[in-house]
Amino acid sequence: MSLHRKKYLNVVLYLCRKLKGEVRGKKKLAKLLYFADFDLYEKSQKSITGDVYRALPMGPVPSMLEEIIAEMTKKKMLGVEQIEERERYNPTEVYKCITEPNLSVFDDEEKKILDRVVIKYGHLNGKQLEELSHAEAPYIGTELRKEIPYELAFYRGTDFSDL
What we know:
By secondary structure, this protein is α+β, with helices and mostly antiparallel strands. It has six helices and five strands, in the order H-E-H-E-E-H-E-E-H-H-H. A hairpin with an 8-residue loop joins strand 4 (78-83) and strand 5 (92-97). It starts with a helix and ends in a 23-residue tail after the last helix. The relative contact order is 0.22. The model has no long low-confidence stretch (mean pLDDT 95).
């Protein structure tokens, strides 16, 4: 699978825009991307971002996320703020969209999946999303730190009747 860079940048912007202009926390952003990619793959055998996910202790993590965020910050598409929420905790990275997402890069099905991810998971925090992803076949079926095969999405049994 190859990276769909243009779609990737716009997925991040789209998620930010739909969640009141920001995504709070790297873990949350990583999990929202995971659900978008694996939902679409389970339904249509394709991924939106084309990224490779690894099974890390905190759940599935897209391997190109850091690079994509760096590129978006440099191009002034995304603002990243470090916010101290609690003492003795790492600051939370808050991603704010500076530019509007270009929706023309997505087909109808991709848009529907993205909206579904926003509605279904957008209100949850990183920890809650981590727990959900830990309970899914792709994560359970993958050795720690290894690449998560997209084919494991077929063992999730997602109900797409809400699409």
